[in-house]
Amino acid sequence: MQIQVVKSKIHRVMVTGADLNYIGSITIDEALMEASNIIEGEKVSIVNINNGARLETYAIKGNRNSGEITLNGPAARMVQKGDIIIIISYGILDFEEAKSFKPTLVFPNEKDNSLT
């Protein structure tokens, strides 16, 4: 049997922009993507702490060390600049392997989304 488990999480990061006219996705600072083990094009879940909204989209790279977290396309209607969100990705593992798997968790500074 295989199960879906948390693979990566960027916990409590501030939204820096919302671009309704972009095609779709979430733009994430490249340094945050690397630290959290999320790759470009990977499906991610977004949880908005401010309004409780939950949505799924895919990740694209933003400029490294920019702190950028921008929801694009229809997802832009689910957030406002300054909202705090959690970004989660999942992996599918064999049940026994999942028991010992450790996800990559990142806790950036909420004020500027930096890793320090």
TrEMBL record:
The keyword Magnesium does not apply. The lineage of its organism: Bacteria, Pseudomonadati, Bacteroidota, Flavobacteriia, Flavobacteriales. It catalyses: L-aspartate + H(+) = beta-alanine + CO2. It comes from Flavobacterium microcysteis. GO terms for cellular component: cytosol. Belongs to the PanD family. NCBIfam families: panD (TIGR00223). This is Aspartate 1-decarboxylase. It holds the Pfam family Asp_decarbox. Binds 1 pyruvoyl group covalently per subunit. Transmembrane segments: none annotated. Keywords: Autocatalytic cleavage, Cytoplasm, Decarboxylase, Lyase, Pantothenate biosynthesis, Pyruvate, Schiff base, Zymogen. The modification Pyruvic acid (Ser) is found at residue 25. The gene is panD. The keyword Lyase applies. Is synthesized initially as an inactive proenzyme, which is activated by self-cleavage at a specific serine bond to produce a beta-subunit with a hydroxyl group at its C-terminus and an alpha-subunit with a pyruvoyl group at its N-terminus. Its main location: cytoplasm. CDD domains: Asp_decarbox (cd06919).
